[in-house]
Specification:
This protein is α/β, with parallel strands linked by helices and 367 residues long. The strands form two sheets. The protein has a ten-stranded mixed sheet, sandwiched between helices. A two-stranded antiparallel sheet has the order 6-7. Strand 6 and strand 7 form a beta hairpin. The longest helix has 19 residues. It is globular. It binds adenosine-5'-triphosphate (ATP) and magnesium ion (MG). Adenosine-5'-triphosphate (ATP) binds next to loops.
């Protein structure tokens, strides 16, 4: 790796265990600067309950502007029981919803990866999940969660009807499929596109657009199609058949939660959400662990920092194009797990658990 101009990062630790696990990432950033000649210009700000407390809003416009200006955003988690009973506009969770919306982060990437050392934590048998490495790409700003008409209508007999509509346009499908195909080229070269074209028009269009894009630009990638219900079944029956899965908002929501449980460890899973690239090729992107603010263990120093650390590795890979640094961090995580070190959430019965900072230190030592 060579010296480079500083990369602008916006770091938003948030609430609960967010600041605790982010601290360990900050140590890794410092290590990369000192030992690998990288240079980060880090700006840190408050979001969620922490921002409500100081500024009266879950996120300030100024923070959204900073997110636009940054090369990437590293997010912790928001959610604070002290703000659980306030109105919708004062929910800490609005911070992340607003960021996703304002930055138009349309592609949500969730890897489900089984580390050899944690293969027993899976809900499935070791021989079914050993080596599992799936990437689910979920369209995240369109589809049935946002389509109109929507609402609850009262009928003439006084009963009601609830309406949601799944709408997808050619361009919405194409841009997310493109993300999936590009990813597959850097992985095992296979994309499985998932919809329900047998009963849904939007699914029919989905399949058609993905097929055409593939034929036009991505013939080097292997494309298959699967109905969403079958995909759920196949993920449990034989998950290693998948490399990249691309799907709409609703099916992606369900399938990515399902896939995360194949790995059996919530505190281990990172994610990325990517936006639309501008003329220069720069695209807004936000990286965050799958887990929430975990108020039940906040302040105890026992949270697993690996999901946050792996989210930072994704940031290095996808937003900064620093593949080597990302790989180094991922290898260090594997090695530390292989050495038997465990935080409480992944420790087996009778296994001694280490603290958040001990896990962070162990990663640096391996690095
Ligand atoms: P959100 O709605 O913000 O997603 P949630 O209600 O789904 O939050 P989490 O905050 O993710 O829940 O916590 C779910 C459980 O997992 C809690 O018992 C929490 O302590 C545990 N947990 C979550 N993240 C971690 C972590 N990094 N290390 C250890 N335990 C964790
Ligand atoms: Mg949750």
């Amino acid at each position: 790796m060579t010296a480079q101009s500083p990369k602008k990062l916006l770091v938003l630790p948030g609430d609960g265990i967010g600041p605790e696990v982010m601290q360990e990432v900050r140590h890794i950033m410092t290590w990369l600067e000192q030992k690998r000649g990288l240079s980060f210009e880090v700006s840190e700000d408050l979001v969620g309950g922490a921002s409500l407390e100081k500024y009266g809003v879950p996120i300030r416009d100024e923070v959204i502007e900073k997110a636009w200006a940054a090369d990437a955003v590293l997010f912790g988690s928001v959610g604070d029981p002290r703000w659980a009973h306030v109105g919708f506009e004062k929910r800490p969770e609005l911070a992340i919803l607003k960021l996703r919306q304002e930055l138009a982060l349309f592609a949500n990437l969730r890897p489900a990866q089984v580390f050899d050392a944690l293969v027993d934590a899976s809900t499935l048998r070791p021989e079914v999940v050993q080596g599992l490495d799936i990437m689910i790409v979920r369209e995240s700003v369109g589809g049935i969660y946002f389509g109109s008409p929507r609402g609850i209508e009262t009928l003439s007999d006084g009963s009601k009807k609830g309406i949601n509509t799944e709408v997808y346009t050619t361009s919405e499908i194409e841009r997310v499929a493109r993300v999936a195909f590009d990813l597959a080229r850097k992985r095992q070269g296979r994309v499985c596109s998932v919809e329900k074209c047998n009963v849904m028009e939007s699914g029919l269009l989905w399949k058609e657009v993905v097929t055409e894009l593939h034929a036009r630009e991505y013939q080097d990638v292997e494309l298959s199609h699967m109905l969403a219900d079958n995909c759920a079944m196949q993920l449990v029956r034989n998950p290693r058949q998948f490399d990249v899965i691309v799907t709409g908002n609703l099916f992606g929501d369900l399938l990515s939660d399902l896939a995360s449980m194949l790995t059996g460890s919530l505190g281990m899973l990172p994610s990325a959400t990517l936006g639309v690239a501008d003329e220069s090729g720069k695209f807004p992107a936000l990286y965050e662990p799958i887990h929430g603010s975990a108020p039940d263990i906040a302040g105890k120093g026992i949270a697993n920092p690996l999901a946050q650390i792996l989210s930072f590795a994704m940031l290095l890979r996808y937003s900064l194009n620093l593949q080597d640094a990302a790989q180094e961090i991922e290898n260090a995580v594997s090695a530390v797990l292989a050495s038997g070190l465990r935080t409480a959430d992944i420790a087996g019965a009778g296994q001694k658990a280490v603290s958040t900072s001990e896990m962070g230190k162990a990663i640096i030592e391996v690095l």
